[in-house]
Specification:
Elements: E1 3-6, H1 11-28, E2 31-34, H2 42-53, H3 84-90, H4 92-100
Parallel strand pairs: 1-2
Length: 103
């Protein structure tokens, strides 16, 4: 048995993932916990950490196995040919989230 914690910034993404998980739950097993979290917001981070702390992570039958950060950054141009200014102007929130982790 395992738990998956999804921390989407966008509630729509969280709802889509929960619906997909529900369709495949009998095959996947475990449990999915969706917590809306903008990692640029200290309040969101603290609230999410408080919610995760409520999970039974010390239970040996449901151990904490790891963390996956699947945040990404994509531009329609070769990264090596894209100036930092172009990146910051086009997607400052995404860039700060994926590369700095803070604002």
């Amino acid at each position: 048995m395992f738990d998956i914690v999804d921390l989407p910034r966008d509630p729509t993404h969280g709802a889509e993932l929960e619906a997909e998980y529900a369709r495949n739950a009998s095959t996947i097993g475990g449990a999915l916990h969706g917590i809306i979290c903008d990692v640029l917001s200290q309040d969101d981070i603290q609230r999410s950490a408080d919610q995760i702390a409520q999970f039974d992570l010390a239970n040996p039958s449901r151990p904490f196995l790891g963390l996956v950060n699947n945040a990404g950054f994509c531009m329609i141009s070769p990264m090596e040919l894209t100036s930092r200014q172009d990146i910051l102007v086009s997607s400052p929130h995404v860039f700060q989230t994926t590369h700095n982790g803070t604002n």
